[in-house]
Amino acid sequence: MDIVIIGSGNVAHYFSHILRLNGHQIRQVLSRKEQHARELAESLNTNWATDPLDMDMNADIYLLAVSDAAIAGLNKELHLGKRMVAHTAGAVPLNAITDISINTGVIYPLQTFRKGIHFDHPIPLLLEGGNAMVLKRLHSLADAISDKVIEMDSVSRLKMHLAAVFCNNFSNHLIALCKKYCEDESLDFSLLHPLMQETFYRLESLDPDKLQTGPAVRGDQETMLKHLYLLRSHPEMRKVYQLFSESIEKYYS
Questions:
Q1: Of 137, 182, 191, 212, which has the most beta carbons under 10 Å away?
Q2: What CA–CA distance (Å, rounded) separates 207 from 209?
Q3: Does residue 31 contact residue 50 with C-beta atoms inside 8 Å?
Q4: pLDDT of residue 119
Q5: Are residues 125 and 185 in the same domain?
Q6: What residues make up the domain containing 115?
């Protein structure tokens, strides 16, 4: 299929390159940031534009790979008639783009992205279509690039997005707090790398309910009091420690 990519960030990079590798033609990259549009388009050997008035109107699919906040503006600005348009956001409902076209859909990649990364495993793709034709076309795109393609409505997709925030964003923030603590206390953060690797390696095949360790799950009040004393000069981290310890104790009580 011929595709116009609207956006030039990490998700736009992922979809444009992997779709091109699987035989689809990226006709154009549209982005308000001229340098970003040009760089992505040149890497794809295709055209680019910064003004929606200059959009290529001969594509089969228009893929909105933009921030969640930008979708509302595009819904007011773009008018594609019967041309198929799909957004890539987890927390934005399908009906957020109904003013753009009568043929709308969603193809949401359940993954965190950064430019230049290569994924060893297929990324789960969550699909939603406003009609059967849209859903069929989205499947033809998704099935070629992933073996984990799931149809999911807007409500369930938002719930899955929330779950992703917990397992990715929050866990990363905890590790960032840990790194800052190590720096403040002149500790070598790299000593924790094998522990982190083992933690996430186990989660690929084992139930997290069965993997919980630490003083909170053991009810080791003495150790937790020692930790809280050490955190007396780190008030925000102390709050997080108390919150998580209480949550673990309740979960396993």
A1: 137
A2: 5
A3: yes
A4: 64
A5: no
A6: 2-152
CA atoms 41, 46, 47, 49: torsion sign: negative
Using CA atoms, how far apart are residues 92 and 113, in angstroms rounded to an integer?
A: 18
pLDDT at 122: 78
248, 212 contact by CB (below 8 A): yes
CATH number at residue 218: 1.10.1040.20
Sign of CA dihedral 239, 240, 246, 249: negative
Task: Tell me whether residue 23 is exposed, middle or buried, using C-beta atoms within 10 angstroms of its C-beta: 0 to 12, 13 to 18, 19 or more.
Answer: exposed
- What count of residues does the chain have? 253
Mean pLDDT by 10 residues, the chain (253 residues): 96 94 95 95 96 95 96 96 97 98 97 74 92 96 94 98 96 96 97 96 93 96 97 96 97 94
